[in-house]
Amino acid sequence: MLMTVKIYKSLGGRAARGQWSNSYEIDSDNAIGSPELDAEADKIIAFERAIHCAPVHFMRVVVSTFAKEGRAGHPEAVRVRELAGTGGAGGTIGGTTDENILPAEVVFEFKRIAATGRTGRLLYRGCLQERWVQTMGNGNFALDVGYAQTLGNVVTGWNNDATKPALVLASYGAGGAVLTRPVSRIEVGSVLIRKRTSRRKKKKTPTSETQGLQYMDEVLGLVAAAAAFFLTKNPTLSVGARTGAIATAGGIGQIIGNLIQTLTADPVDTDPGS
What we know:
- 29% of the residues lie in helices and 30% in strands.
- The chain is α+β, with helices and mostly antiparallel strands.
- The protein folds into 2 domains: 2-193, no CATH class; 209-263.
């Protein structure tokens, strides 16, 4: 049966700092909630712990059936296991502090190689520190040789483990049928930059600050045109009255323009991302 294993992590075990997850599809004969299926999930957790820095905590693992009636996201059965606080729930490489862990948008890629079709990718954050990478002249990152060997050893151990879960790449075919391709091996990939996704980041207002400035210019133009029309229709006004009318129109236009600029200004992002 096709199962999904989803592992949730956070930095320092603090959910308030944001959580992220990685998902896997496995082909298993074991039932949801069985010790055998839990053991398969634990194998994947052990693999992830071996490539993550120590401050990254593994919060929970969710194992579910892949699909119901040919649609992902509607599992027939789900098992959730909390991992934090059970001991040994963090990554196993690097130091115990998080100040040197690269930002969340810097991820490391592992490749899932299938016998046929496209290669699958796994993108991990929280497994790189500053001392393990350097920036090349082309803007790409190069991985420290020693750390690359460490990752290579972890991958080799996984590939040679005869008891590892049967990873597959799942996709939908004609008529919504679920198609699977067995993963023959995992390979070390490269360092990538991915756009940071912060769900708590405030959205911009429908009219941006640039649009607000455009609206302000249009309002000032309209007020000036109205003032000119008024003076044209009242040619007998004294010089003082004409000057006062122009000043009043300018003041009204500026007030309206300032209000538009305030209402359409871009909001301040109070959340720098997890």
